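Researcher: Let's try something more involved. This one mixes different molecule types, so please make sure each is placed in the same coordinate frame as the others.
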Amino acid sequence: MTIIENLPIEKKLEILSDAAKYDVACTSSGVERKGREGSMGNTAACGICHSFAADGRCISLLKILYTNECVYDCKYCINRKSNDTVRTSFTSEEICELTMQFYRRNYIEGLFLSSGVRHNPTETMEQIYIALRMLREKRHFNGYIHVKAVPGAAPELIAAVGLLADRMSTNLELPTAEGLKKLAPNKTRDTILKPMRQIQIGISENRYHGAQSVSRLIGTDGNRWGFELPDPDRGLNRTGRSGQLSEADGSGKNGAAKKTEILLPRKQSGKTDLAIGESGKSDLAIREPGKQFVPAGQSTQMIIGATPENDYQIMAVAEALYRKFDLKRVFYSAYIALNEDSMLPQVGSKPPLLREHRLYQADWLLRFYGFQADELLSPEKPNFNVYLDPKCEWALRHLEYFPMEINRVPYDMLLRIPGIGVKSARRIVQARRSTKLDFEHLKRIGVVLKRAHYFITCNGKMMYATKIDEDYITRQILDLDRKKNWELEYHTTFRQLSLFDDQSPLALAMAK
Amino acid sequence: MDINVNQKIYLCEDTPDGVFTEIYDAWAAHIPDDRLKLRTERMHEYELFSDYVYVQTDEAKAVKVARSVSRKISRDAYDMMYLASLSYEQDKIDAIYRFLKLGFRYGEPVVYMHARKEVCRIFELQRNVSNESHSFREFLRFHDSDNGILIGKIRPKNQVLPLLAEHFSDRFPEEHFVIIDEVHGMGLFHQKRSPWFLAPLTKEAISRIFSTCENAGYENLWKTFFRTIAIKERENYHCQRNLCALRYRDYMLEFDSCAK
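Model: All components are placed in one shared frame. Result:
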């Protein structure tokens, strides 16, 4: 492992964005914040993409690692300890400068900062904290910040970072605890879920009041952490154990503490008080009135196809995360075989992109269409169909509900009709108040009739005389989806997805 | 093609004020729909057998239209109409006029009557305008000029400049910046901590603004980032083109096709 500290910035950017690119999330949505005099930036609730890379993924944020040094050896990760690559780190100044300069040219919507674990999780989180604090307080950056919570980092730091960031995410990495144990020996399900829970609690308290119950935000054993935090003005230290920092003020009677609430427990007078600066400037986490904790919510991601979980297991996990952890998003990342390892798919095998696509479609069904995971899949039928999207598949298995009468069925049933999305369902409900809708109207509203017409009636009539028959409709819809060059003969059985090799060129063409 | 003898064609300046004035004048004239065409001067090809009426932009009339639409129909209806008035489509004023007729009859619910042709058309127009303005919010690029002024150029179909003004002024209160719409010859000017304003620009003025250019430091860093952030194994130019159409790339420095 070669560590090079003094690389030119261009080289660092190349290395540390290259190392960060496998993280999927690049959204800048979820929070609407106006600009402020004296600072730069605002945020839009819908999120703003600023470019699209050669892989078609959106570039919204400056996605970089703070460092690609890592003491962990997760088998799937490009930055694992055992990989022989050049290692480097940004300084806080470099991160700030890049963010500010890119932002003012409208290249980006903000910063996405992640990191390898250089010495230990807490030290890494601390460096992230220092960089973010410099960006927010010294450079007055008011744009979007997405930051990783490093599992295992001290809860105080996560609490503090959460007040600087808009979104935080903790990667679940693999859908099941067994997979994690096998491929990420240094991580456990428990250390991952802990910060997730902490962030969830912090967010939920935004809603009720500005004040916090300190112990809840930090978790139960937050007191174990015993060192001081460096002031961003005085630079960083490598070990995270500097002694030269502001004096501890266990009483917390400075001016800032009166006006604002400090999220940290102060230890009962003693040797290792947390740094509470005289000026209030180096207070670790201060909730000023109106300052929100992770206002854009939290997200996570799972790697798909590195371990043998089926789609049903993955969707069940995603559903549990949405329900129990109030996540904003779960991202799915098709595993790209980069590392040689007997436990992993062969290097160079194709990433399961179509499978990833189906999972996203199903994820949408969970979040916006009122579906539940076990409506879509079951232990007996644990994987999505390659050739049909999950909604169509559901409809074909439940033809007893169809055809539905557009002028009568309630909104939540409209959403279940293939070819009708959230927007067109809403417009149908609005429009049918003043008139009886027919197919011509639906076309204007934006319903995809070539898909929907098998499943609906307008004023009791279907568009064409079609029979409600599973095989027939399936064939018709497959026909619609078929690209010209795709000569697939359709038999009444569907081909099952195999784990690592579901990417026939035909299927890929379909995914577009 | 059906040619209506004695049809009246109104022509106005292609600005929201001009469009609103035209609607005011045409409304007052009580001409049946099938003998009335509402157009802007910029987009019109002259027709035979028609009487032309040249509308003199009148802010007072425009304000009256705006006010009565938002009071008697709704604020949403006014927003739709304003956005549609920035459209590049030839039939935009006709579309607004027909929509308003319906609106004054049905009141507030008119914006939900998606099944009506009149509502559908204005909906399409305003969606196109607001989508395009969102795209430029995304894809506009600023150059840093030698004197610290940020300069951006766009080539939009619709007149999106007023829609970008609020967004960028709010975002960059501490920056001087200029955004130039080359197609419509307009400039958006923002001076640090001052309100923005729009002004027409001549070709010479546009080229003068662009004589200054920045050193390429951060531009090169951005290109580097753009290159390395893509995952080779997932390369998908088709998808990239769908999400960022070629016509937006004229001034996006990260693409090879950048005009610069």
